[in-house]
Amino acid sequence: MTTDDKTLKPAHGIGRRQFTGAAIAGAATLPVLHPLRLVRAQAPVRVGVLLPRSGFLSAIGAACWRGAELAPNILSDMGLAVEVVGADTESNPDTGRTQAERLIREGVDMLVGCFDSGTTAAVAQVAEQNGMPFVINIAADPAITEQGYQYVFRNFPKAPTLVMRGLGSINNLFEVTGTTPRTTVFMHINDTFGTAMSRGIQALAPRVGVPYEFLDSISYDPQARDLSVEVSRARALDPDFLMVVTRLNDAILLVRECVRQRFDTMGIISPGSPGMYEKQFADTLGPYAEYATTSVPWFNPTSPITTELQSQFVAEFPDQTFELNPGFTFEALMICADAAQRAGSTNADDLVAALRATEIAEHPMYGGPIQFDEEGQNPNIDTVVVQIQDGGPVVTAPVDIATAEAVFPVPSWADRG
Amino acid sequence: MLPIEFYFDAAIKGLLTGSVYAMLAVGLSIIFGVMRVVNFAHGEMLVAGMFGAYLVFVTLGLDPILAIPIVALVMFLFGVALQRGLIDRFITAPEHQQFLVLIGVALILTNGLDMIFGPDARNVQVPYAFASFEVGPFFLDNVRVYSAIAALALIALLYLFFNHTLTGKAIRACADNNRGAQVVGLNVSRLYAITFGIGAACAGAAGCLLIMVIDVTPHLGADFTLLAFTIVIIGGLGSMTGALLGGLLIGVSEAMAGILIQPSLKSSFSFGLLILVLLLRPNGLLGKRSS
After folding, report:
1. pTM of the model
2. Nearest CB to A262 within list B17, B132, B213
3. Mutate which of A54, A228, A244, A246 to test chain B, going by most B C-beta atoms within 10 A?
4. What class is the A160-296+384-415 domain?
5. A236: left (phi over 0), alpha (psi -120 to 50) or beta
6. Is the ipTM of this complex over 0.85?
7. Which fold has domain A44-157+301-356?
8. Tell me: the pLDDT tens digits for B55-113?
């Protein structure tokens, strides 16, 4: 539409200035007169991202947040509009609940979070009570999506799936390397995630057919200041290898203590937990971090979106390592933006209907297309085996995406210093 | 059944860790013993000390044990300034007001450190971080052994200061009989400032020792305040020897709980011990009976 100055002449006593002023005022009030839904459909979907950016999980929370920071630009290039609103759960479920309520009051359209299962369970409750679509980036406690929630969707494996695939990967590692240990001690954190993993291992190990015996199961506080006694206890049992479910800080403490007590085993292996593939783990422990092995959902290095995401990540955060935490957080935002675009609305029920119909074939994390079953769970996420080699995590299995060969048994601590 | 030497090993490790805990608790005990003020910001002062040691390490490359004089001096001056500028006004105020002021100081310290350093965990990698002494069947890591020696040496120095210097004796006089100390002409306000400074310096020194054992984040403080309280209450409020005994007891009991029950129940074992002491000896193991 074009404007013609001639039509703006003061024929009825209205001057050009008055007309312009009235037009501006009218334009300013237009959104108020239109239905809210129509106006907001044109805006990016506002997603509240809840992460533990302070407290004992802060390092991992910061890693997740990097994925959220990259999302708006990369998704915009893909034609998806998203606005990210961050909130800190302070590694505390109660704070997570309060922050979720605050974000909902402030008018976000969807929630994403929260990395740890305890906080995620609390936020899921708030989301369900408020009819707020909630996409879980990382959290494995199966109970979260087994309560019949309608607004909660999880793009991360449940603990039993992690355990099943983790134990299977560990068996495979032993077969490939031709070394089968006979005994292990299981050391794990005692938070919601650690307990769920422990229960999963106890229930599923006989079904998977593990070739080793569990000599002991040692649980400890994830905020432990000292793991010397825990490691001494494991050392006294002389296991062939250590199976661990950790967070970051305790993973560092645990390995440090193993070195100090000269507690050599064939290796330290996690069937699916954070900590040992993270940058701070490798930076802090140096050569002693090498060969720490984790079976874990990971990014797909062959996906074009991963390549794009990784290159932007390196440009934006040159001192950091791209791993699953930013990957899954980015992917959760991608799911939200995709649902909002298909819904053509930011109405919660429309978004939920769109989330249920999600079908994303090309995405950064390893596994099949992103879909949600009737529980709101994506069943298609696969796991890979990563091992720290030359100061960073490399994929050693499955073979189609492996970038290095697994080392097992690992060299003794004395041979690394 | 675990071999018997394993229990000795755990007890020795508990004693080493307990020595560092004692260093932290001594500061809290001194402040309460003299000023009758419970320092609810003590854990946060420890965390400030840890960050101080971290800064000295990354800027000057100085080992945290060697950084103790620098960090302790800075924390002493901070403590004196805090006492003179703020705490002194609340010395005679009701306890709940003192409590609120010090909680406020704790919040400011935590959030200030968060703003300066961010939430990421920081650590100091000394050259002997992974080394250990092999003594018979036991492995004692160098970091804990050096930290424990430094903590015990500092506690001994404090003991000498309070028993063999004029200022130390004057502070003890204030603690024993505040009014009497004023009557004989002691500058009680100045002595309180020195006492609070010493308490803060103790927290700073304990921070230098702990940074070698655990990574520091700004939000660690509350846990350590609670730990220091537990130790001081078990040992006896206001008693330096009690704080030492309490620290060692907590260290050993946590270690033994890790073997006898489950490591995840270590803290509940400490609190169980605290309840037991409160039931049987409400003034703590070495605390004075109130008249």
Report:
1. 0.79
2. B132
3. A228
4. alpha beta
5. alpha
6. no
7. Rossmann fold (3.40.50)
8. 999 999 999 999 999 999 999 999 999 999 999 999 888 988 999 999 999 999 999 99
